[in-house]
């Protein structure tokens, strides 16, 4: 049916490749491209020989001309960007130049500023409309599935949605004293930034990890959850009409936070360059180099994740509550695709977003977040492709 260019070769990209190969009727051909072509070749060697034809390519995704040349050579129907968020705009530029649809899992970030904002990518909307191609932003889990969950709730259960609490809980244990479950640089930039939430038309800022609650999550039990800013809050505040309050919460163990505090205190999480033995280095990038690769955590990680949305609003003039969530088992993910659940929960939705574009189900010119499309086919695909969801109409609410 179609061809996909997959940019990236880390843990999430590995899941995307596995899932594309599980759906050869849709993904007849794929090309895996990364700065480190050996990682692409390893995936091809592992998964080649099936009905999905696999190519690999060396690619510097910071170089728009290189991306353009590869797109013109391979001629994909869609580009799945699972590289670094810093590279979103160069890849979008290449898609515009070549007239190819675009999918990513995280919004653009400037390398020198830890800032999560959709404005840079939303600015492409008119150009994508004129080019007649689709840019699907944030087709991971959060952002991604959490937006689809909210759109599904809005379509089927609410006349008005008033509050949304997104809770991302990982009860997995990889056995290391300290490691991050996705790219360490992106992860640490995210959680050391100030928190922010939307209420009554305004953004309210909090000190990093200063807001804490305990929430009893299905299948993993009570966990400490901390308020963060996350990019889907920005798009949901725009696209879910009438919403009054949106917050994002994530779990962290005391051990994780203790290590993080020490690293911050000694300057290892800084993105400001320093001189070391005559060279300019960025402490956070050096820290990334010495921490365990998230793609290597799969064989070690046990336990489950629980990510979902607790929603309050009105239906037929009466208050209504709704909780929709997915529970994902790290060991089951590793048995299926060789990755832990954090990579799995991001990679599967990326494949689904690309699949819906190739099939023409989620395809219209412009730049869109996932909640702007019909949620039903995505929700159906989640159940089919490894991320089944559950519903609770009497959840415990967060104050």
UniProtKB/TrEMBL annotation:
All copies of the Saccharopine dehydrogenase NADP binding domain together span: 5-136
Name of the protein in question: Saccharopine dehydrogenase C-terminal domain-containing protein
Give every Saccharopine dehydrogenase-like C-terminal domain span: 140-387
InterPro entries per record: NAD(P)-bd_dom_sf, Sacchrp_dh-like_C, Sacchrp_dh_NADP-bd
Highest rank taxon of the organism: Bacteria
The record lists the organism as Paenibacillus farraposensis
């Amino acid at each position: 049916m179609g061809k996909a260019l997959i940019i990236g070769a880390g843990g999430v990209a590995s899941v995307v490749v596995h899932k594309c190969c599980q759906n050869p009727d849709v993904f007849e051909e794929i090309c895996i491209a990364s700065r480190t072509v050996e990682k692409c070749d390893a995936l091809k060697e592992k998964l080649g020989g099936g009905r999905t034809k696999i190519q690999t390519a060396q690619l510097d995704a910071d170089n728009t001309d290189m991306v353009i040349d590869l797109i013109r050579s391979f001629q994909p129907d869609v580009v799945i960007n699972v590289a670094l968020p810093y590279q979103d705009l160069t890849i979008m530029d290449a898609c515009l130049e070549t007239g190819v649809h675009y999918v990513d899992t995280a919004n653009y970030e400037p390398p020198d500023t830890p800032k999560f904002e959709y404005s840079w990518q939303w600015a492409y909307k008119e150009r994508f409309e004129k080019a007649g191609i689709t840019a699907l932003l944030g087709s991971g889990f959060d952002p991604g599935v959490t937006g689809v969950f909210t759109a599904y709730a809005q379509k089927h259960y609410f006349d008005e949605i008033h509050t949304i609490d997104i809770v991302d809980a990982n009860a997995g244990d990889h056995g290391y004293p300290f490691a991050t479950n996705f790219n360490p640089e992106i992860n640490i930039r995210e959680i050391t930034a100030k928190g922010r939430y939307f209420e009554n038309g305004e953004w309210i800022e909090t000190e990093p990890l200063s807001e804490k609650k305990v929430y009893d999550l299905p299948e993993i039990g009570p966990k400490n959850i901390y308020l963060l800013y996350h990019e889907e809050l920005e798009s949901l505040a725009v696209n879910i009409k009438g919403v009054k309050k949106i917050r994002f919460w994530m779990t962290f163990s005391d051990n994780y936070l203790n290590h993080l505090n020490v690293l911050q205190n000694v300057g290892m999480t800084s993105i400001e360059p320093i001189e070391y033995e005559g060279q300019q280095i960025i402490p956070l990038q050096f820290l990334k180099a010495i921490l365990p690769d998230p793609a290597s955590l799969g064989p070690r990680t046990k336990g489950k994740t629980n990510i979902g949305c607790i929603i309050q609003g009105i239906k037929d003039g009466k208050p209504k509550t709704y909780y929709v969530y997915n529970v994902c088992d790290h060991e089951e993910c590793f048995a299926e695709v060789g990755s832990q659940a954090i990579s799995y929960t991001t990679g599967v939705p990326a494949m689904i977003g690309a699949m819906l574009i190739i099939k023409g189900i989620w395809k219209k010119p412009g730049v869109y977040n996932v909640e702007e499309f019909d949620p039903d086919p995505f929700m159906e695909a989640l159940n089919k492709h490894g991320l089944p969801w559950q519903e609770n109409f009497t959840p415990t609410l967060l104050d």
